[in-house]
Fold:
Amino acid sequence: MDDFLRNRTFDELQPGDTASIVHLVGRDDIELFNAVSGDHNPAHLDAAFAKTGLFGHIVAHGMWTAALISAVLGTRLPGPGTIYLGQDLQFLKPVMPGDTVTATVTVKEKQPQKRIVLLDTICTNLQGEIVLKGTAKVIAPEHRIEWPRTQLPDISLRRHDRYEALVKRARDLPPLRAAIVHPCSAAAITGALEARDAGLLEPVLIGPEAKILAAAEAAQVSLEGVEIISVAHSHAAAERAVEIAVSGSVSVLVKGSLHTDELLSAVVAPGSGLRTERRISHVYAMDIPAYGKPLIVTDAAINIQPTLEHKRDICQNAVDLLHRLGMEEPRVAVLAAVETVNPKMPSTLDAAALTVMAARGQITGACVDGPLAFDNAISMDAARTKGIVSPVAGQADILLVPDLEAGNMLAKQLIYFAGATAAGLVLGARVPIVLTSRADPLSARIASAALAKIVAAPHVAEVLRA
Structure:
């Protein structure tokens, strides 16, 4: 493509002059136009809805096709300096994803007063059928212009298909009760009702009743029909939530407006009944636009400086989660700053040990490899460049980080720089624990509840594989 845009002045234009551009219509084109225009017509987005319509399939917006005409006028003929005054349009045939559209403008008439030019405008598909036609009215430029072509920004679309599938699967499972521990803020109350309204969890609110009611009033929501267990304070709420989870009255714990340490201390306290032989750990189930599949990052929230034994449990917790989601043998990349073992870098020694432990059956149900640097854990090209031969490199399902600081920074960089959405869950206790933040978007909060329901539901792996 030429690096410069060049125009045709009014004096240079002659009837019959023509110019075209060709564009292959993709799903991204339609969804970007939808996002920019705010046109949420399901005929352009929802295959099930479109199937019932006149054309029987998704179609591109008519004005998206018309925008190709504008592109020709502004960049080709007459080009830079053109003022678009008017356009009449007829939409003759639908344009669908996969069509190749050619937009053509042809000079029809020149009107010397005010440099007015009329142009025939048509768009055709690959079969030569006219899908759009009309007449454009422009003011043609007076002087020659040659201008560097502007470099357009790269654009990536966030689609929520991964979370949508997760939520749908969770919604199809039998209802589960969840203890919302100390929901004494508007955000905590709202989060509990969001999970209920999404058909995921039946909330049981545990905390000082007056504060819970005040939080609901602040959130402007009704708690009619929602069970409230009143206790004196947040510490008592955590203890009571553990008790009813042990009794089987609830199957999930959800952190409200108390500190994470306060809730987890009650969970792992000696004799709590929720503690297991497994170390508890946190997972971020991440939806990252730039990565082709969901990715688990662990542990970024609980274990500050995990030992080798702790890392084994952290790894197994994440592997077991993916088993519950129907993945038979997840690929685990044990991260370090480098991909070679260095005695001066303890994280590389732990990574090598974990790889051997998996080979010896001390970690089960997964393919584990490390040390791997972040780039060669998630990029096949990076792994090939460094000559790494590994069944995990470039296609990791789980990133096992060296410590909490590294994991927390990695997860937040993916969220804020890479546009990731992260659903968070604590594993290793007898019930899953949802940890959410006020900064989390609704999609992350709903996905966290869906994950918890899938982990807690009996026989869920068989349901998901069916």
